[in-house]
């Protein structure tokens, strides 16, 4: 697709006149580097030194082959030897980061943990099984006035518009007190429909122009004719909006998660969709499904980017995968039971099915990659299915209501219940009670 063609691994330029750096990392990257992802920064490989001798050769190879580099990788970038792995730090150089393996599981040095793993927490009481555990809820997208720009908006007849970012925020706000009542500390990565990034599309004018030029669009149009414009991706306006609401916004959230909130787990809350065409006259789908994502399944051309290669190593070496998979499987089981939805089947090659439920995939999304703690990304419900549209229209209510031919709970409560029950099942299995 053109979007990925344009945004994959292209150079950045200095954007002048931007707000000064704030407490968090808010400066746009100012190095022109062809082997970084768009808006990515040159990685600090020395941060991986904390993982020296914390993993054996076999554990490393297993995670690389079955979770992270499932589509293969170049031996020029990652050389796995008996006692160490050598990872190229910067494309075009001969500089390698050398990771020493532990000789055996019993020789492993202790892992510097991201926070509190549930099995390391003190015993809990039965009514507060999540006590001492910090969960950040990340309501996907922006919503409100931004939803149209994000293309996460549609409207049918006189009904209120459906905006994914508003639905996910509502779920987060309902989920927070439920998790708190179980003892968890809960933070919201955003608590309204405003962006967390200090930038706006106009800040990305120059970068958008550069990306299009790199993609071979010599003389791009400035503006596009609405969401149905088939050539919109080749315009400056569409590209700079995408850089704002997708790339810059998610990077800023990662900064909040990693440097400010520092939770033990992030749940990225989303609703899925099938293509709906014209947002003012959308196609309703008969399909409805559920799936969950954890980080992994990097494509070879993603591993070629210096920053993504380093971020992949962070995820692999921090050993967040076992916890992410176990939590995702637990929530998949309870959400499948609550919703009755079948698993989504990808038609693209960028995912790897993992676990036993059939609902969980590894995929290299920016959020699951950049959030340094265990992260599970939830994709229940097709927003533009006939059934879900009726349920969203019905809003939140107590008990059951006859909607789309069946008595059902409110879609928001069903989502929240599925997540809460999954986490409770996971903690019941993992954390001993007092
Ligand atoms: Zn979404």
Could you characterize the architecture of this molecule?
The chain is of the alpha/beta class. It has one domain: 3-Layer(aba) Sandwich (Aminopeptidase). It is built from twelve helices and 14 strands. The strands form four sheets. A seven-stranded mixed sheet has the order 7-4-8-12-9-11-10, sandwiched between helices. Strand 2 (84-88) and strand 3 (96-100) form a beta hairpin. The longest helix has 26 residues, at 236-261. Residues 1-23 have low confidence and may be disordered. It binds zinc ion. Zinc ion is lined by residues 140-141, 164, 270.
Topology of helices and strands:
Elements lengths: L1 H6 L49 H12 L9 E3 L3 E5 L7 E5 L33 E6 L7 H4 L2 E2 L7 E2 H18 L3 E4 L16 H10 L21 H26 L3 E5 L20 E5 L5 H4 L2 H12 L3 H19 L11 E3 L6 E4 L2 H5 L4 E6 L5 H9 L6 E3 L2 E3 L2 H20 L4
Parallel strand pairs: 4-7, 4-8, 8-12, 9-11
Antiparallel strand pairs: 1-2, 2-3, 5-6, 9-12, 10-11, 13-14
Helix pairs in contact: 4-12, 5-6, 9-12
Bound molecules: zinc ion.
Q: What's the alpha carbon Rg, rounded to whole Å?
A: 22 Å
Helical segment count: 12
Quote the average pLDDT: 91
Instruction: Using the coordinates shown, work out and report the CATH topology.
Output: Aminopeptidase
Number of DSSP strand runs = 14
For the biggest sheet, the summary is: 7 strands, mixed
The CATH architecture classification is 3-Layer(aba) Sandwich
Strand order of the largest sheet: 7-4-8-12-9-11-10
Q: Tell me the helix content.
A: 25-40%
What's the CATH H-level superfamily name? Zn-dependent exopeptidases
Bound molecules: zinc ion
Separation of the first and last Cα atoms: 54 Å
Number of domains: 1
Percent range for β-strand residues: 5-15%
Q: Based on Cα principal axes, name the global outline.
A: globular
